Amino acid sequence: MSPADSGATGDGDRRFIEIEDASAERLDRFLCEPLALSRTRVAQLIADGHVTVNGRATRKGYLPRAGDRIEVHLPPAVPTRLEPEDIPVEIRYEDEHLAVVEKPAGLVVHPAPGHPRGTLVNALLFHLDGLSNIGGDRRPGIVHRLDRDTSGLMLVARRDGAHRRLAAALRRREIERGYLAAAWGHLERDRFTVDRPIGRDRRDRKRMAVREAGRPATTHFRRLERWNAADLVAVRLGTGRTHQVRVHLKSVGHPVVADPIYAPGWERGFGGAGGRWAEEFRRRAARLFLHAAHLAFEHPVTGEELSFASPLPSPLLEVVEWARSTS
């Protein structure tokens, strides 16, 4: 796949994508990454006739073939109808093109069914004067996401041009994203990489799983500390799939501490003194122990190299100090 060119028109933007190799993914899934859009919005663009393959409208289930030329018309975004809300969010960096923010744990990134308001997007609309329209009226400015229970650094676009360049850099893996996580048990090696595809769990669509038919996913792990029944781990993303860190750690038998989806009750599987320690550790870690601690990228307009570090929030830091003192 290679984006041939893109251009702004009076009635929106047009994007052209040349397919070099046949894809096993249907068209609506395939276009999510190059367009930096949600699957729902891509599917709507296809249904509205804004996507053509070799000059003809097609269906969302079409499988792209080598040599296909895809044209996407992105109509002007409808002004957002979301309400700004005075939700506390720390702005680490801000200029006219982008911002870097600290998302607290428990805050949903953007409105969705069940969460119509009280999201990070609502907070950004209050704290920032303008967000890009690339993400549509529900995801303005959102370049990448963090899970609701994950805290830490997020990159936000304020202009459409910056958003497109940042999304392209993300696809090329030029944006560095690092996490700190606590993983149950003890990793077999101090450093290792998990390279396993991730897709929707066939039995539960709200979960992700390692699946051969999934999308390529790579995560690099490095143990920082070894505690009684858990390890503190530095994580570096090679790709950015939904729940990637959580799924890859679960796949090697060491899920993230306090993960309500992939490791509920995991602490009860330890025996003896280790079991008592694990249960107390889980009690103290009242939230998912996953924090986006590092973000580095080239500014899409100025070319300046920007790097940010975020320390563990105090509730997790207190848990770390307890683990150190009891291990």
Q: In summary, what is this structure?
A:
This protein has 327 residues and is of the alpha+beta class.
What does this structure look like?
The protein has 327 residues and is an alpha+beta fold. It contains 8 helices and 16 strands. It has helices spanning 27-30, 32-35, 39-47, 120-127, 160-171, 244-251, 272-284, 314-325, and strands at 2-9, 12-18, 51-53, 56-57, 69-74, 90-94, 98-103, 151-157, 176-184, 191-195, 198-200, 208-210, 218-226, 230-237, 290-298, 305-309. Strands 6, 7, 8, 9, 10, 13, 14, 15 and 16 form a 9-stranded mixed sheet that branches. A 5-stranded antiparallel sheet has the order 1-2-5-3-4. The longest helix is centred in the C-terminal third of the chain and has 13 residues, at 272-284. It is globular and about 65 Å long. 36% of the residues are buried.
The number of helical segments is 8
H and E order = EEHHHEEEEEHEHEEEEEEHHEEH
Mean pLDDT: 90
How many β strands by DSSP?
16
Helical proportion?
10-25%
Radius of gyration: 21 Å
What's the helix and strand layout?
Layout: E1 2-9, E2 12-18, H1 27-30, H2 32-35, H3 39-47, E3 51-53, E4 56-57, E5 69-74, E6 90-94, E7 98-103, H4 120-127, E8 151-157, H5 160-171, E9 176-184, E10 191-195, E11 198-200, E12 208-210, E13 218-226, E14 230-237, H6 244-251, H7 272-284, E15 290-298, E16 305-309, H8 314-325
Parallel strand pairs: 8-15
Antiparallel strand pairs: 1-2, 2-5, 3-4, 3-5, 6-7, 7-8, 9-14, 9-15, 10-13, 11-12, 13-14, 15-16
